Amino acid sequence: MTSFQETKAVVRAFVRDLDAVADGEIENAIARHTAPDFLWRGMHPFYEQHGAKAVADVFWRPLRKALRPIQRREDIFIAGENDVAKRGGVWTCSMGHMMGLFDEPWLDIPPTGKLAFLRYCEFHCVADGKIVETAFFCDVIGIMQQAGLHPLAPQSGAAILTPGPMTHDGLLYGETNPAEGEKTLELVNRMARELTTSDMGSPQDELLGTWHKDMLWFGPAGIGATYTTERYNAQHQGPFSDHLEDIVFHGHVARIAEGDYAAWFGWPNLTMKSSGGFMGLPASDRTGEMRVVDVYRRAGDKLAENWIFIDIPHFLSCLGLNVLGRARQFPRT
């Protein structure tokens, strides 16, 4: 039986330390648990950072100044061997919300003085007892919406506080049966093959091969959440396929599974052009990059839930749109 307990212990110790320290100790907390050549990937406008000081200065200190007192509410935690050929390594994936009182501006988004929830998904690669790579995705547009700013067209799915797994069993802190993770990984890989060989289209018969009919799909702010294969096709996959073109799949950086859960991310996963209409965007000759996270829950022999993070601000910046620059231009509602 393959054990990922040492990797989990490294990451959990890092998170406990980071979440507990005062603001002035953030850099030291990161340095204690990461390699000297630590690589951190973040969404627009953070991008790639190297070393504890840069990560503390660029991301954690500004966020913790804006959301006080910050609290991490974790819904999923898994570990696994990277399934991506030629990359390898043991990774963890954590997903949930960062929560706090939004009392100071963040990324020019005006504070509300109210409770705010920032969806996050964080991947860590561990080697020799240290974190060597991290990818941190968070829903920046979701915070804009909570501040009453709506820089994009009305989204096709629902705007909700995204829940964790219906089964409430996503925190895999202990040992698990490797056979279950293998089943999950095989299923998500099969789903991805079928999707990428069908020009990103998802008619009902394709979806029902790997998804439960009453699937839940929790998309990022700007797209929203949807329920059932039929409504998913109408509210996300249909608009995606109909209004984006020249779609190219570039693969993943990490792809892992444990128990009933799987997760992956790319940098980027996809490139494409807008033919007009997706998220209200105009047609464009520019190529946009989509950096995407998928987290899945398997129920039996099919997928039941899917949590999605997309670096939409980066995708828009590729098309020449500065969505964060609109934060000062749009009145609150």
Short description:
The chain is α+β, with helices and mostly antiparallel strands and 333 residues long. Helices cover 28% and strands 35% of the residues.
Q: How is the topology of this model organized?
A:
Blueprint: H1 5-20, H2 26-33, E1 34-42, E2 47-50, H3 52-66, E3 67-81, E4 90-102, E5 115-127, E6 130-138, H4 140-146, H5 178-196, H6 204-210, E7 211-218, E8 225-227, H7 229-243, E9 244-249, E10 254-258, E11 261-265, E12 270-274, E13 288-290, E14 292-299, E15 302-310, H8 312-318
Parallel strand pairs: 1-6, 7-15
Antiparallel strand pairs: 1-2, 3-4, 4-5, 5-6, 7-8, 9-12, 10-11, 11-14, 12-13, 14-15
Largest sheet: 6 strands, mixed
Classify the beta-strand content into a percent band: 25-35%
Taken in chain order, the helices and strands follow as: HHEEHEEEEHHHEEHEEEEEEEH
Question: Which structural class do you get from the secondary structure elements?
Answer: alpha+beta
Shape: globular
* Poorly predicted runs of 5 or more residues: none
The amount of helix comes to 25-40%
Mean pLDDT: 93
Number of domains: 2
| Beginning-to-end CA distance, first to last residue | 54 Å
Alpha carbon gyration radius:
19 Å
Strand line-up across the major sheet: 2-1-6-5-4-3
Number-wise, the strands total 15
Q: Note the total helix count.
A: 8
- According to CATH, what is the class of the largest domain? Alpha Beta
The assigned CATH architecture of the largest domain is Roll
- Might you state the CATH topology name of the largest domain? Nuclear Transport Factor 2, Chain: A
